[in-house]
Amino acid sequence: METEKVKWVLLALTAVLTGSAVAFAGVIGFIDLIAPHVVRRIFGSAHRYVANVDHFGGIFMIFADLLSRTLIPATEIPVGVVTALVGAPFFAYIFIKERKEALKKMMYAKTGYLRYEENSRIVKGVSFTLRRGQNLCVIGPNGAGKTTLLQALTHILPYEGSVEFCGREVSSLRRKEISRSIALMTQLSASYFSYTVFETVALGRYAHQQAFFDLSTADENFVLECMEEVNLLDMKDKPITQLSGGQMQRVFLARALAQDPELILLDEPTNHLDIKHQLELLEFLSRWAKEKNRGVIGVLHDLNMVRDFSDQVLLMKDGNTIAFGKSDHVFEGDALNETYGVDIKSWMKASLSKW
Questions:
Q1: Taking the model in full, what pTM does it have?
Q2: At what angle do helices 275-292 and 245-258 cross, to 10 degrees?
């Protein structure tokens, strides 16, 4: 059974069990059910507030009893009716709001460990949230675990903890489901087959095929559109073995776009690109995410470009999250200098002064 169906079955079962519990436990049980949720909505999850939830429940019970006695003159309404009238809409509000939040939240990760082998823990603890329309830049020194993190987000590597994509645990998704929704553009590697540019980009449609890999007219048109997006149409019949490193990066980006993903993961995408094409690439990805309401997670080393193009920044070192948030937040203080072991801001100012 699919994960989404299981979630809905469990939700229905929980509703039935809750109703049964209320029927046997009475209104006091109902108060104990809704009071903790009300307190968390108002005050958050701070223990000093949640621990006093019984006080809030008592106050609510007195309020409900007062309404039951005075709402209709000369008639006393059962207090359970009042608590249900208040509690049921509140539960509906919670469900609708959390559903909307889940739709906005594209990816949530809170990992315990990522590993290559049983005893080889590479990333020890990373936590971040990516919303639709945003691009997240992952930064950090060599060996921080950035590439390993990207591989875990697509479940190429196993992980401990939670990695959710659009409200579903990535480890529960079938490989084809992941390929249709998440595109991973890795660092440039050697090419051994003399495919044409068109044939290479068309491989992005593989996950959408039902049987044999046979491109339909619609698929071919979509592939051409993706090539046009990154200015490759003029070389669509050229073998990729004859391309430069920068041209190959554009081919691989077009192939990622051909997957029509909700999320694109990129590992140092600006490698082999000159400054003009670096700017064009990052501007395109930022525009793509916002206009299509999708997401981008990219590993970058150029901190100036990270500051200019990122919506969120994840700073890593030795497999751990050092800082997460907007670039102004991550770049302020000493976290950046301590992570890289150099006074980056002073070095950049000194370099710019030479211009």
A1: 0.69
A2: 10
